[in-house]
Structures are given as C-alpha cells and as structure tokens.
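Feature request, filed as a ticket because there's no other form

It would be nice if the structure record came with a short human-readable summary line next to the tokens. Right now we just get the raw output. Example of a typical job, pasted below so the devs can see what we mean:
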Amino acid sequence: MKPKVIVLLVLLSVAIGYIMSTYMGAEESATFSQAEANPGDTYHITGFLVKDKPFEYDPIKDPNYFVFYLKDKSGDVRKVVSFEPKQQDFERAESVSMYGVAADDFFQATKVIPKCPSKYKDEQINKQVQAAKRASL
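Raw output as currently delivered:
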C-alpha cells in the first residue's frame, strides 16, 4: 500500500473512535449532586422510585406533566418533573434511567426510561405457586 493510504486509514480510524466514544453513550450515570453543581448541563441519572411519596399525574388536566421522586445511587432523593406522559405501569418499575437538567428545587427530566420487572419473573412465580399447590394435594 502507498504511505498516503496508510496515513489516511489511521486518521480515519482515530476519528471514528473519537466520535464513537463521544456520542455513543460512553457516559457514566451521575448523581443529583453532580447535576446540581452544573445546572445548565444535561446528565444521565439512574435510581430507584420512592414509592412512599406521591406521584403527580392528571391526564385530564395536563397529560404531559408528570412528577415523581427518585433516589439516586448515592442515596439522595429529589423531586423529578417530566413533561412527557406517564408511561404505563410506571409504578412497577424496579429502577429508572433518565436524562435531564437540574432546576431550582427539582430535576427536570427530558427523557425517562423505566426499567420494569421481567414478565418472565411473574410467570416463574406463578409456576412455583402452582407446583406448591400440586405438592400439597
């Protein structure tokens, strides 16, 4: 191969690697404290629903306004406001992954992704219950 072609291939591979590492989700999940330190920046936060605090969602009044509370990986609990409709079975979510920015006294989520329990887990529990019933007969 010609030296120019080799140099071009090396530069192309470096550029592709840089683009992929920058834009292909190579980020780590942040905490509410990190997001509050830089209020204008978008952060990816993963946490668990705080189910003993109320959800605010009235589809008649405003179907694109949803409020819930989330506990991040460091244990901080914050109010989260989403301007997307509440997803079906959101209350059943085991964890929530979201993107957004820190506001004055809440976190404004631009994208909310609930991680719901597997339907196979429910099927497995049902099979175990049925097997236990058969064994007791």
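Something like this underneath would help us a lot:
The first strand starts at residue 43 and ends at 49.
Helices lie at 3-23, 32-37, 119-136.
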